[in-house]
Amino acid sequence: MPAQPLNLKERAVLLALLAEARPLTNAELQESAGLRLDGASRLKLNDLKLVTSVKEGRSFVHEITDDGAAWCADELTAERPERSGAGGGALYAILAGLQRYLQRTGQALADLFQPPEPAGEVEEVVPVEDLETRIRAAYKVLSSKSGSTWVGLVTLRPALSDVPRDDLDAALQLLSRQPGVHVQAEANQQALTAADHEAAVNFGDSSRHLLKIENP
Predict the structure, then answer these.
(1) Residue ranges of the domains in the chain?
(2) Can you say whether the dihedral through the CA atoms of 101, 105, 109, 115 is positive or negative?
């Protein structure tokens, strides 16, 4: 937490910028979350290096920093601020539930929030349903052969070698959000080989090496 306590509006701005995962003007922030970042609050968040605000024309463009994203991650386990009202209470109940979800799935907060795809630039990929079915089938075979519930991605990728890497990575990220599916980092990093590192899937800034599906 920063040395200066943040008021509810400043907290909401940080969470909104995290969720949007892109720079926003005040007009866009107003449209997205019903609030603006200006005056003393803007200076405060800028001074604390939680948000950068760059003036473009007559408007400021705000973007959350790495420190701001780390503050949001810490806030998932924070107590509800005093005098936050019903809306603030509901917000912090949702944050607590989100933290439980991240713990259960092994995901990081950055995994959940991505900027929208630019119009007309969406790449064609293998149908998600088909790829998910293939991943589950491959996992079932590989885990049965190894006798382990954890399957290394270094083993999974060759079993799906015809699938473009980006498509497989995207499917693994979507699959990891489902109950009973875990895509996690190897706890013993020293045990990883160069091939393990190469086969890892990156969710945000986190590399994951292992797959576990409770009901393949």
Answers:
(1) 8-112, 128-213
(2) negative
Residue-wise pLDDT for 120-142, tens only, equals 544 444 455 588 999 999 999 99
Radius of gyration for the chain, computed over Cα atoms and rounded to the nearest angstrom: 20
List the one residue out of 201, 176, 170, 166 whose CA is nearest residue 186.
Answer: 201
Q: 182 forms bridges with which residues in the sheet?
A: 212
Structure tokens at 29: 């922030």
Are 21 and 115 within 8 A, CB to CB?
Answer: yes
pTM above 0.85, yes or no: no
Architecture of domain 8-112: Orthogonal Bundle (1.10)
Environment class of residue 64 by beta-carbon count within 10 Å: exposed (0-12), middle (13-18) or buried (19+)?
buried
Q: How would you write 112-151 as a 3-class SS string?
A: HCCCCCCCCCCCCCCCHHHHHHHHHHHHHHHHHHHCCCCE
Check the CA dihedral 215-105-9-58 and report its sign.
negative
Q: Phi and psi at residue 50, in whole multiples of 5°?
A: -95, -25
